[in-house]
Design brief:
By secondary structure, the chain is of the alpha+beta class. About 35% of the residues lie in helices and about 20% in strands. The protein is built from eleven helices and 16 strands. The structure holds zinc ion.
Length: about 475
């Protein structure tokens, strides 16, 4: 793989667009909550019926149903079901689209499996009512043509009206998003939005009962960061969340473990309550809130880390992760899910596309931890060995940095003097990022003509709570 080349003219305006989603906290009234709850119940029923119909059609005729067939049957269904009739027709169609997508994925996975790829194939399932959490308006703007004048104009399906702050110097802004059939939903406008480019609107209920409105907007792609020529591999692990080629790294925050005691207590309290009782439901919401809090903390951390990576490096490479495979190790599963590497790669990729105009590269992870990043000699390591010491060229390096360099070389090729150019810049915004200046020590081994440079193993930022044998190799 070669490093992606970029023309200078592309750095400012690419003429391309990107889709991003902005999520806003909504504050619905009791009546709106009641209506939205009814919508979700009806849509869940509709989607389960759609799955059942497809199953039945396949059983009797040997052929599945298409989305078009199901969409055509929708008006008749809405006539029969008064609850479904309350739901906006496009929202119903979107629910059927979701079923169709699940089937497409199922058939794609089946094909991949037949071709010999390692994939888990899951047949689309029936959803439980409390697991059906969101509904989507697939269109915000609709073209309407007047039959007499034949003039086409755009009509809003979902409307947006920002509210002026009640007092001067008040930064908190609110807005109303008027959803047909539900009413004007009040949202906290923590970030401005260009409503003219809004594409879809999704209303979502969280497990703890909070409501959110997600608006996807299409914005022009205008990378704002200039090419600093810096490239890096990123090694993700349990000891260090992310280590880069130049020795910088970010320790693992382990939010989940910090909140684990709290979770356990809340879980025990839930177990003591009678299932289905009012107190049970209350406690369940408390528990869901804690889970959401942890998820928010994790997301916040990953956003900051990914931004730091994209601002610091113009070209970033990761290893291709097989998270579902890794989670099968029961000792590591919790820590791996807690780490959220997949999310990190996703965040870095979209931020890199938006701010730099280029994507990230993923490489084959085979032997990235074992091979020497300077001479390529394979040095087998146990999971507990934190330092890479090469018997052939004498390179001594933190194992994660060594892996990060291997990833960089696989993605972008080996640059001639990468070790001399090592810059140990640390993001000032994120004080937890700790790196250590390399000490230049004379190396006794005369076997190699390579420049004698030994880097002292990087000192751990924080004592890891996990035992060393739990770290990923
Ligand atoms: Zn070596």
């Amino acid at each position: 793989m070669s490093r992606p080349k970029k023309k200078k003219s592309e750095q400012t305006d690419t003429g391309k667009t990107v889709r991003i989603a902005c999520r806003y906290r909504a504050y619905p009234t009791d009546l709106q909550i009641h209506r939205m709850g009814n919508w979700l119940t009806s849509l869940c029923h509709l989607s389960n019926t759609a799955v059942a119909e497809r199953k039945e059609a396949y059983r009797t005729t040997g052929k599945g149903l298409t989305y078009t067939a199901q969409q055509n049957a929708l008006p008749a269904k809405r006539k029969q079901d008064p609850a479904l009739r309350m739901v906006h027709s496009q929202v119903c169609q979107d629910s059927l689209q979701r079923v169709d997508k699940a089937y497409q994925k199922f058939f794609d996975d089946l094909k991949k499996k037949k071709a010999g790829q390692k994939v888990t194939v899951g047949y689309p399932r029936f959803k439980r009512f409390d697991k059906y959490k969101s509904f989507t308006f697939p269109q915000v703007w609709m073209n309407v043509t007047d039959k007499k004048t034949e003039i086409t104009r755009q009509r809003e399906i979902v409307k947006f009206s920002p509210l002026k702050p009640t007092k001067p110097n008040v930064r908190i802004k609110f807005a109303y998003i008027t959803v047909p059939g539900i009413g004007a939903l009040k949202i906290r406008l923590h970030r401005d939005i260009d409503w003219g480019s809004a594409k879809t609107v999704t209303v979502k209920r969280s497990a703890s009962g909070d409501w959110y409105v997600s608006v996807s907007v299409e914005i022009p792609l205008k990378p704002s960061l200039s090419d600093n020529g810096k490239q890096t591999g990123v090694d993700v692990g349990l000891k260090k969340h992310a280590a880069t080629s130049d020795g910088s790294y970010r320790g693992h925050p382990k939010f989940f473990r910090q909140s684990e005691a709290k979770l356990k207590k809340q879980q025990r309290s839930l177990a003591k309550k009678e299932k289905g009782s009012g107190n049970y439901k209350k406690q369940k919401a408390v528990l869901a809130k804690t889970h959401e809090h942890i998820a928010n903390q994790r997301e916040d951390f990953l956003h900051k880390l990914s931004l730091w990576l994209v601002v610091t490096y113009a070209y970033i490479a990761f290893e291709k992760l097989n998270i579902s495979g890794m989670v099968q190790n029961p000792h590591l599963a919790k820590a791996i899910l807690d780490a959220g590497w997949g999310t990190l790669i996703r965040f870095v990729t979209y931020k890199s596309v938006m701010l730099r105009g280029n994507s990230t590269v993923t490489v084959n992870p085979a032997y990235t931890t074992q091979d020497c990043s300077r001479c390529g000699y394979r040095v087998p390591k146990t999971l507990a060995e934190r330092v890479h010491t090469c018997p052939r060229c004498g390179l001594t390096l933190c194992r994660d940095t060594n892996a990060a360099r291997n990833i960089e070389h696989l993605a972008f090729g080996k640059s001639s003097n990468s070790e001399e150019n090592m810059s140990y810049t640390v993001g000032t915004v994120y004080p937890d990022l700790v790196s250590v200046t390399p000490e230049r020590k004379p190396v006794e081994t005369g076997a190699s003509a390579a420049p004698a440079l030994a880097v002292s193993p990087v000192v751990e930022a924080r004592k890891p709570r996990l035992k060393s044998h739990l770290s990923r190799g």
